[in-house]
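quick one, two chains, predict together pls
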Amino acid sequence: MKTKQLLLNTVVAALLAAPVAGALAQGKTGIVKIGVNETLSGKFVFVGVPPTTAIRLAVHEVNEKGFKVGDTTYKFEPIILDNRSEGSVMVANATKLIEDEKVKVIFGPTLSLLANQSQEITVPANVINISAAGSWQGLGYLTDPKKPLLFGTQPRLDSLAKIEVDAIKQLGAKKITYMGADDDTTKGNMGPFMAEAKRAGIDVTLITFPYNTADFSSFVSRAKADKLEAVFLLHPQQSGPNLMRAMAEMGAMPKGFAGRAIAPDAALKLAIGKPVPFPFIAAQATPDMDYPPNAAVKAFADKLAGTGVDLGVTKNFAFYTYDFVPMLAQAMTKAGTVTDTAKIAAAFQTIVYQGAAGKVCFDKEMRTAIYDGAQTIVRNGKVTAKTFPSTCK
Amino acid sequence: MGEDLTLFLQYAFNGIAMGAVYAMIAAGITLVYGLSRIIHFAVGELVMFGAFVALMVWEGTGSFSLAIATAIPVLAFIGLITERVVFRFTLREPLTGFIVSLGLILVFQGTAVEIWTANPKYSQPPLQGAWELFDITVRKQSVLNLAIAAVVLAVCYYVLRKTTAGKSVRAVSDDPEASALMGIPVKKVIMATFIVGSALAGIAGCIIMTIGFITPYIGAVYLLRGFAVALIGGLGNIQGAALAGIGLGIAESLAAGYVGPGWTDAYVFGTAVLILLWRPTGLAGGAEGARI
């Protein structure tokens, strides 16, 4: 009986000790919380859903192996909060992420209007804030030495402007309108485009419109009366089909349509149910997922499609976060810390990563990303893609 | 015709087409307010629901007529339910009804997100292309939308002015207690106005579906304009709503063309404030003046 009891005790002890022994063999493990403060509902939902979906995907992939910092293997735990496209909720979320969740890194908001407010909270709190907000560049935040923890994930607006003005040149237009909603996003983004257009000898008339404009007839009438030849639409991207429909029906701006990060479907079917009768060029800071230029982009597009999330016409915004999650992990490994944000930021800026959007790195003069840019061109219903390779070395 | 005049008329036509939609939304608001004194803030969401219902039918069948014919009863049913389940209990305290309607906005939005997701939905209008009339580009769908709005508002006007049912509505609007003493079923009349008001919002939604993309969050845009029109025209005054709707549409369009589009909202609502300072009951006399 005693022998039997001893044997049983030995087996139980061995079973209890096994996980501990396994953990010792594998080393220590830890969790790094990263905050996500995005527009997951409300009127700007289309801006926040693609980057957030990409973060979930990237975190899942990073966590499959984890990442080492010293002798500890870490995994990311994303704390995702919906700011409902409202400034007050965004502020409450940022405060909660920093004070309650103790995160050291926050992704988003992508929307310039909210990102401008977000950095007012994250900078004093010494939290790394990563966003594609173009206004951070326009307002000089990404070159400000007092804000070293702000990182942009949209390429430099001046390099993007080159791709955008190149699109206008391809349309053969000399008098165009630059259209955008009357808000901070337009104000923060238009400067570099205007400068580049001026250098190219293109005459630009600015037309802004209320954000929720449904009927573009009057704006198109104005452009037609001014004999403008083409349009560049900055944002909101979801207005692209309506604007093109008005152009097509009213015979305005016949040389065509260019816009930032607008899915080709807008020109192929959404505007008038068939390809629009003028050329369309989407100038993008990233490759286009619907017409992927390489296998990496195709693989990423397939993975995103596999999530089952409807990403709409702004699905390319997923590039604004996807590669930066593994880059953050690499930066933490390189910095040897998951809490010292100054060291992590310094390391983050030096990472060169072969990602889904080509080779990704940060600009040396400005803390914003460099990666493959692209144009997606629709002419007579045929789609072609043109890539502007990353200058990362 | 001079270029300046042509452009002015172009803006005016564009504005009339959009203003007709505002007029229809305002007519619904004004009907409900005229009888119940409830400011129904969820009317924008009813417009949104109407747009989504119409989109489903339009995409599913390819028949715009069927889309309208479906949206009307569906929205009328929603109007019936909201009146029976919610607003009937707030008739004695219209302010409570107003607050409840704010809550309904969230309910409708949340429901729409669950059913249709939050991403924008696009549809092709049944009529594409445009006519050139005296150098003015007239979009075919705008003409159809204008015609639909004109017919609907004319029917509303006729029913209210020329039929027994309309007389009952006007009687209840003027004096509910005296109407009850005369044997008019006041509660049923009020219920009917909620049904009609919601159906009007549904028809407006059908039109909006043909103009631009729709999302569960478009309601606020049309709510603001609908209320501005109802206030300018005079709360409780359907003719005033029609005139003010057209006026607001033209003002918006002219602002987009001449003043600076970014200031359209400020310009339009600033004008509304000035009008209300000048005539607190609206241009055509409102709740304290002529009604319905």
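Strands of chain B lie at 130-133, 136-139.
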